[in-house]
DNA sequence: CTCGGCCACTAACATAGGTTAACTTCCAAG
DNA sequence: CTTGGAAGTTAACCTATGTTAGTGGCCGAG
């Protein structure tokens, strides 16, 4: 059975294949997905405060977790294909943030009662699902560190480095870049700065030969500079060793 | 059987008693703790990169999760009694941050093999443990929001409000304040600023009648101002309604 | 085609916060 | 009591970043 047999969860498995799963287990995981939807325009998929009875897995595209506060958008996490976006909703029930699509996305929905069943009968899968939410928390911690420590240039560099690495884990990173449908405003929302200042920073990184971000495409010009500027050490992603960012 | 019968996990249960547990389950949880240690001086209990085979629960005092990066300390989380500090170590195995004691602390250790056994046989407890790590992640997200959005005054106000609320959940908050053994340098490390600037901020909040932080004691002078300045909405703590901060 | 709106981009100015360098207060060790 | 170090405090100066106000380009709707 090839991996293509699991269209919804293939990248999830790629991204965190710490324990090898049997085909039976892979099938159970795939079976969590109940229905699939596509959103082509920016769309708020879930709202803060929503009581949820299903969780969402990102199959294709980009989604952000957003906290709105007096008119401002704050991106607290970004997701790449294969990520379980709100698995935490299973246990917390009520969401503490919005989930919004960026660009065109495809999303799978996993009803909580199916997840419940797996938790009760499949310890390996249960552990993998838990593990997945813990990875999220580890990324949150790194973002906290990055926000506490780095200035705007460093934050952007860190964000780019992290996304490149995470996309590489799921075979979606190019040799020297990746496509990223975020506007400068959204980059600013993720780095805790303003779009005006983000524009200055994007320009600076382009001119200093670190990275070029334009027309939805990220082109890494100098890996070493990027890593240094972003103080990026991929250990927190718990992956199988960095690939693109040697 | 009174709650005092569970000296190690009593506050853990207070803090997140979402599902009522039977005394049998409470006993199993209490039985996770293998040995207890006290540290009176500041002490690094666990180091980043450590491979762990036990997790730690905070029984008394304060501990911080810290990421050191070129000489600087970054506090990414603070813990109050009852918190499972590194439950995530159970699944991740390798720590992505240090765990350090602040002031005098008492800590319990729970070997991973005991946790493993509970996960396999006790779905309610398993879910509660998972829930506990998800709460951590929700707090991380709020910190990210706070760092992205608020200036130093607001960050400090938010930190104070959060800690007051969390201490209140475990009956350790006073009527108009709480004791907090953090130095201004450590407050700065948690708010992503410098100790010099933190000093300015502490002074300002004292003079504007918001909160007085001195000699290890926090005295809230005006709840409403504190909440506003820190943009604090306790929903993300998933508690049973705010008490001190109406 | 052309209009309206979003996005990228720029300039001029204001301010929060970083840096360096002091001095003071407190307290514990001797 | 004396000493030394850590914590708190302040001042002067400088830079990163926020704010306000605008420009021009692109693109989809009509």
TrEMBL record, chains A, B:
Protein name in the entry = Crp/Fnr family transcriptional regulator
User: SUPFAM superfamilies of this UniProt entry?
Assistant: cAMP-binding domain-like (SSF51206), Winged helix' DNA-binding domain (SSF46785)
Keywords from the named record: DNA-binding, Transcription, Transcription regulation
One family from Pfam that matches here is HTH_Crp_2
Q: Which InterPro entries match?
A: cNMP-bd_dom, cNMP-bd_dom_sf, HTH_CRP, RmlC-like_jellyroll, WH_DNA-bd_sf
Can the keyword Transcription be found in this entry's annotation?
yes
Q: Which residues form the HTH crp-type domain?
A: 150-224
Organism per entry = Arenibacterium halophilum
